[in-house]
Amino acid sequence: MKLWVFLVRRLILLIPILIGVMTITFILISSLPIYSPTGGPDRLDICRPSGPHNPMPQPGTPQFAQAVHACGLDLPIFEQYALYVSNIFTLHWGYISPNSCIGNSQSGCTFGGNPSTLIVNAVETCGSPCQVTTLIGAWLPYTLELAMFSLVIIIAAALPLGTYSAVRRNRPLDQATRVFSFSGYALAPFLLASFIMLGAYFLLTPGAAACYGTQPLDIIQGSWPPGTLNGLTGGCLVPSGGYLPFSNSMGQTTPTGLPILDATIYAATHPSPHGAPGYYWSIVGSGALRILLPAVTIAYGTMAGILRFVRNSMLEIMNQDFVRTARAKGVTEGRVIRHHAGRNSLNATVTVLGLTFAFFMQGFTITELVFQLYGVGRLFTFSLIPNIDPGVLTASTLVLTIMVVIANLIVDVLYGYLDPRVRMG
Q: Coil, strand, or helix at residue 259?
C-alpha cells in the first residue's frame, strides 16, 4: 500500500473520534438552561453575550424570543446539533460570557491568582463581545511553542539516554536512568513545577532579580509580552509597562503568531536602541528562559516513560538474530547500534510516543497556571471556575482534542514510513 493511501485511511478513521468529541460537548452544552436568571452559565450567553451596553432581554418579551430564535435554540434537537457542527467548522464557537471568571475581571475568582492581567488585558483588547476563537487564536501559539519545546526535550534526552542505557546495561548510568524513570512516574506536573519554582527562588540572586522586577521569580514566571524592556538601570534592562513592538496587550504577536519566533525575527531585523546593546536579543533570551522551565516540567514525566521504553526496546532488538549476524560479519558495534538496532527500535518508540501524547497534554493546564503563562491550558482552567464559561470550556476541549488527534496522525504516518509492513494491515 502506498503511503498516501495509508494516510487517507488514517484520516478517515479520525472522523469518528472528532464526531464523538463534538457530540459529547454538544450534550454537555444542551444540559445548560437557555437562560439563567441568576447570571450562571446558559446557552443564550454563548450565542449572544449580555453586557452593560447589550442587556439581556427578559424572558416572555418579544426581544427574548427573537434572541432565542436567532441562536437556533427553539429548533428541534437534531437541527440544533447540525447548527452546532456547522458553527464548529465555520469557527463560530460563541462568545466569552461576561458573567464568567474569564469575562468579568471583577468576579472575584482568585484560584491561582486573579484571572490576572494576562486574561483581563486580553479580554479588554478583544473587545465586547469577545469571540472565543479570537482569544484562543491569540493564545494557542504559546501552547504550540510550549509543546514543541517539550517534544524537543523528550526526543533529545530520551532517545540517546535510553539507547546508551541499553548498550551499557547495569552500569552506573543505566541505574541512574532507572531511578529517573521511576521519579518521572511519581512526580505530578504541578509538584515538579512547584519544586522548580522553589529552587529558582533561592538560586536567583537579588541582583538578577533587580534586572527584571521586584521578585526573583519574575525572571522565569509570567508570560511575555506584555512587559517590554526599554531602559538601563544599574546595568540592567527594566520593564517599561508598555508592550513589545511586535505584540499587543492580548499577547498576540506578529508576523507568524509564534512569540519566540516573532521575537527572533524582530531582533534580527531591527538594530538595538542606543545605549542598550543586545536589547531585542535579551527579549528573545527572556522568552526562551520563560518557556524552557515549563517545557522541562511537562516533558519530565513523558520523557521518563519513553526513556524506559527505548531501553527495553533496544535490549529486545539487540538480542535478535539479525543483530548477531551483523556482529558476526564484523560490523562495528557503533554501526550495529545506529543502523541495525537503533533504527528498528524506533518503530515501537514512535508508537508509544503517540499513545502518551494525551497524557503529555494533561500537563499544560497545570503548568501554564503555575508559571502564569499564556495558553489554551490556562484558559481551560479558568473556564472551569464558577461562574463557568461554557464557550471557552468547549472550545478549549475541542482545540486540545484536535491537537491530540493530529499528533497521533503524525505518529501513524511516521510509523508507516519507518515500517512498511504496517501499511499492509
A: helix
Residue range 291-303, pLDDT digits in tens: 888 888 888 878 8
C-alpha cell at 239: 520593564
For the stretch 328-376, pLDDT in tens is 877 777 777 766 666 667 766 777 777 677 667 767 777 887 787 888 8
Question: Does residue 35 belong to any structural domain of this protein?
Answer: no
- 360: three-class secondary structure by DSSP: helix
Q: Confirm whether 324 is domain-assigned.
A: yes
Is the pLDDT at 223 greater than 70, yes or no? no
Cell of 311: 531501553
Long-range contacts of 379-384 (CB under 8 A, 24+ apart): 379/102, 379/119, 379/135, 379/136, 379/139, 381/111, 381/112, 382/101, 382/102, 382/109, 382/111, 382/115, 382/119, 383/100, 383/101, 383/102
Report how far residue 76's alpha carbon sits from residue 81's, in angstroms, rounded to the nearest whole number.
9
Question: Is it the case that residue 106 has pLDDT exceeding 70?
Answer: no
Cell numbers 539479525: residue: 322
Estimate to the nearest angstrom the gap between the alpha carbon of 365 and the chain centroid.
Answer: 8
Q: Are 405 and 254 in contact (CB under 8 A)?
A: no
Euclidean distance between CA atoms 353 and 178, whole angstroms: 18
Cell 487564536 found at: 137
Which residue shows C-alpha cell 463581545? 129
Query: In this structure, what CATH number is given to the domain that contains residue 149?
Result: 1.10.3720.10
Whether the pLDDT of residue 235 is over 50: the answer is no
Q: How far apart are CA 133 and CA 129, in angstroms?
A: 12
Whether 144 maps to a domain, the answer reads yes
**Could you tell me if residue 162 is inside a domain?**
yes
Integer Cα distance of 213 and 29 in angstroms: 43
Domain count, the chain: 1
Residue range 255-271: mean pLDDT, rounded: 87
Q: CA 332, 334, 335, 341 torsion: positive or negative?
A: positive
Range of the structural domain that residue 197 is part of: 1-18+114-425
